[in-house]
Amino acid sequence: MVLTKLRILFGLLTFLLIYGAISASTNLAAQGLPDDLFSEELRDRLSDDGSTDRGDERGPEIQPYVGPAPVYEASRIEDLYTKRSGERLQQFGYDVFGRGQSVILRQSGAVQDNYILGPGDEILIDLRGQENRSYKARVDRDGRVLLPKLEPVSATGRRFGDFRAEVEAAVGNAFIATQAFVSIGQIRQITVLVVGEVNRPGALTLSGLASSIDALSLAGGVRKSGSLRKIKVIRDGKDMGVDLYRVLGAAEGPIDLSLMDGDRIVVPPLGETVA
Predict the structure, then answer these.
(1) Using an 8 Å Cβ cutoff, are 215 and 204 in contact?
(2) What pLDDT is attached to residue 82?
(3) Distance of CA 272 to the CA centre of its chain
(4) What is the 3-state secondary structure (H, E, C) of the chain?
(5) The pTM is what?
(6) Predicted confidence (pLDDT) at residue 114 exceeds the cutoff of 60
(7) Taking a C-beta distance cutoff of 8 angstroms, is the pair 265, 194 a contact?
(8) Longest C-alpha distance within the chain, in Å?
(9) Closest Cα to residue 187, out of 127, 256, 258, 236?
(10) Cβ of 193: how many Cβ atoms within 10 Å?
């Protein structure tokens, strides 16, 4: 008798389990979600919530422009010229240099000869010939590069092309039938201060390859109340002018936009204008 009741109870439990499984499958089918895709969607949802790791999908290292997007409304001077001329006139160049944007910090590829060396730059030297060795050295705080069997070579503030030529000549004098191949490894970081008529003034940390335009972009761009033609880069007490109209136009000759650690970029108020 007891055995019969146990069999009946076992049968009821089995029926309930089978019924529950069938109901679950029916619910999935009613939602239009096949069983074999349920686990995949669940994994996707968990990944979207940050609960699982999809791998590193980051792009190039960048230093983003952080802060509210500037509002590009017509300035007072644009309204004035528009009323006088009867046509919609806009200040030239601010659609390019008035916007804050991200800057790609490139750390690969050959460095140009006009790159200015500074403390922290890594120098790579390969000797080939009677001497076959490789050296790594950094520009020290005194602005020199120390290499075995060579006199200290001054580096800070010099163009990389001039520094390389001096090292190659020094190796030719110190070693017999040996050539030197000089390149730059890691690029130093620099800190510059951007003040004046920009959207986000303050101190910025940049790559040693960054230019004045990169710094202005990270500072949120130049306001329409600021000048694009009389920007100053102050270095060691000396003012170096930067005219961004030369960048936009077909200017002849080189345009020096390079930066050094400790530079100050000053964007003055807008001066005289013409339409």
Answers:
(1) yes
(2) 86
(3) 34
(4) CHHHHHHHHHHHHHHHHHHHHHHHHHHHHHCCCCHHHHHHHHHHHHHHCCCCCCCCCCCCCEECCCCCCCCCCCCHHHHHHHHHHCCCCCCCCHHHHCCCCCEECCCCCCCCCCCECCCCCEEEEEEEECCCEEEEEECCCCCEECCCCCCCEECCCCEHHHHHHHHHHHHHHHCCCEEEEEEECCCCEEEEEEEECECCCEEEEEECCCEHHHHHHHCCCECCCECCCCEEEEECCEEEEECHHHHHCCCCCCCCCECCCCCEEEECECCCCCC
(5) 0.65
(6) yes
(7) yes
(8) 110
(9) 258
(10) 16
**18-22, 53-57, 95-99, 209-213: range with highest mean pLDDT:** 209-213
What pLDDT is stored for residue 27 in this prediction? 42
Question: What amino acid occupies position 203?
Answer: A
Residue 171 tokens read as: 């190796």
Measured CA to CA, the distance from residue 138 to residue 119 in angstroms comes to: 7
Q: How many CA atoms lie within 13 A of 248 on its CB side?
A: 12
Cα 231 to Cα 212: distance, rounded to the nearest angstrom: 10
Put residue 60 in one of left, alpha, beta given phi > 0 → left and psi -120 to 50 → alpha. Answer: beta
Q: Give me the torsion for CA of 149, 150, 151, 156, rounded to 10°.
A: -130
pLDDT tens for each residue of 165-189:
999 999 999 998 999 999 998 899 9
- 235: Cα separation from own chain's centroid: 23
Q: Take residue 164 and report the two structure tokens written for it.
A: 């390389």
Mean predicted confidence (pLDDT) in 90-111: 75
Phi, psi for residue 259 in degrees, rounded to 5: -125, 155
| Spatial contact of 228 and 269, defined as CB atoms under 8 Å apart | no
